[in-house]
Amino acid sequence: MKKRQVVMVRRDASASDNNNNNNNNNVVKYGECLKNHAANSGGYAVDGCREFMASAAEGTTGALTCAACGCHRNFHRRKELAAPSRNEDNIM
């Protein structure tokens, strides 16, 4: 029987809060599907899905599956768009 060593990393709560605040400033969109459907045969072929569309409501497991191609959201190109600041919305 082999012995296994487990390493646990504790993250500082204030550091994780800072990371979450930085990520909330951007809007994330998922673009075209990049899944290689011919990887088993050594080729390269994508299905042509142009944009991720969730197949179910947010907060469910179906929200991570594309309604158009059936792939997981991770196969789609991630695009981070800068969210408009609140000051720009209030300019007359």
Concise synopsis of the structure shown:
This protein is of the alpha+beta class and 92 residues long. Helices cover 16% and strands 16% of the residues.
Number of helical regions: 2
Care to count the β-strands? 2
Calculate the terminal CA-CA distance, rounded to whole Å: 72 Å
**How much beta, percentage-wise?**
15-25%
Outline, from the CA principal axes? Answer: extended
- Note the main sheet: 2 strands, antiparallel
What do the pLDDT scores average to? 80
What oligomeric state is this?
Answer: single chain
Taking Cα atoms only, what radius of gyration do you get, to the nearest Å? 20 Å
Strand order of the largest sheet: 1-2
Task: Provide the low-confidence segments as ranges.
Answer: none
Task: Spell the H/E element sequence.
Answer: HEEH
Helix/strand-derived class? alpha+beta
Helix content bin: 10-25%
Description of the structure:
Residues 1-24 are annotated as: Disordered. One of its GO terms (molecular function) is zinc ion binding. This is Mini zinc finger protein 3 isoform X2. With 92 residues, the chain is an alpha+beta fold. It has a domain at 26-82. It has two helices and two strands, in the order αββα. The radius of gyration is 20 Å and the shape is extended.
